Amino acid sequence: MHLRTASLLVALAGLCSTTLAMQPATLPVDPAKPAAPAVAPSAGAKITFNELTHEFGVISDEKEVETKFRFTNSGTAQLEIANLQGSCGCTVPALAKKTYAPGESGEITVKYNPHNRRGKQSTNVTVTTNSAESPQVVLSVKSEVKPTVMTEPQVATLGQVQRGAEGKTTLTITSRKLDLEVTQVTPNDSKVNAKVGQKVETTLEGEKVVQYPVEISLASGAPVGQVQTQCVVRTNDPARTLNFMVLGEVVGQVKVEPQRVTLGGLTPGQDINTSIRITARDNSNLEIASATEVPALMPTPSNPQGAPGARVFDIKVAKDTTTTPAAWVVTLTGKAPATQTTPFRGDIILKTNMAGEEEVKVPYYGFIRQKPQPVAPPAPTGQPNPSFLVPE
Fold this sequence. Notes:
This protein is mostly beta strands. The protein has 3 domains: about 5-145, Immunoglobulin-like (Sandwich), CATH 2.60.40.10; about 150-250, Immunoglobulins (Immunoglobulin-like, Sandwich); about 255-370, Immunoglobulins (Immunoglobulin-like). Helices cover about 0% and strands about 55% of the residues. The chain contains 1 helix and 30 strands. It has one helix spanning about 5-10; strands at about 20, 25, 45-50, 55-60, 65-75, 80-85, 90-95, 100, 105-110, 120-130, 135-145, 150, 155-160, 170-175, 180-185, 190-195, 200-205, 205-220, 225-235, 240-250, 255, 260-265, 270-280, 290-295, 295-300, 305-310, 315-320, 325-335, 345-350, 360-370. The strands form 8 sheets. The chain has a 5-stranded mixed β-sheet, with no helix packed on it.
């Protein structure tokens, strides 16, 4: 099973939480506003910082921290600060002072909000000036965020579970606030159950903490397919809620390889030739009665609700008797749509003799990549262009 845990963990990391401030005022970035006007470079302007990186060390996620980056115009001409930009679209200051004479110093206050962050963090601040030598200087703030409340692991993985079998896993919610109580854990999908266990007081890395075990299980009768749901953890502190993901897959007796037909980018009219192999996990006598293509609904300007797309495949079903027990091979041939410029997708519907799995869907997906337009060769150098004039 291939679960896309990496992209999910990125989503759980939350939004960027670094803010900048140059005294005395701060304003949020407005994406509708144009970028700061360019300034004429000056060979004599030069900005020098006392440090380019600040280490906050180990910090809690309960409140923001700040540091000041001091700088000096170490050049011979006036220094102008044109713009300050934090990574991830963070808050940037309204500059109260933009120009500094040679030898004059100033400071930039960088604030970092670690809420919903965990582990080692690094955020950059780009300072743009009129210095011809170094028009942009990058400042870095680094830290290791120690959450007040966290789940371990961050993603509860059930793995592959046979349909009808029991699937369980356990994660732990840890709080450094000893009076915090986990009151409820609510999955967003009825296929998943969550049960909160009794609170336990213990010591973690030399600090007293409270922990709650949470048992995650599949609901009885969960259908075949992917399990991917978010659970919301609520506590006796309304300001303290957190989320975690549950991933897994319920598998039946019918084993399909590949589980999804990915065609990738095709040129209009390109030949398609691919296949699906179907077997029974318990080695029983599997039969495939039919295989049918059902294109997905594709919205159009005249029909926003969507109409079925064009059929793409000629489908053939054959039994492979060279294996024991026999397997089934569904061959898909055809041509990529010649005029459709949007992605095309749908399902191949398999009709089987397996109880509870009489209909199995195999999704397919592709998109049309237009052929590159031919480019006329350049005219030969040193030769005049041909003339259509006939001399008299």
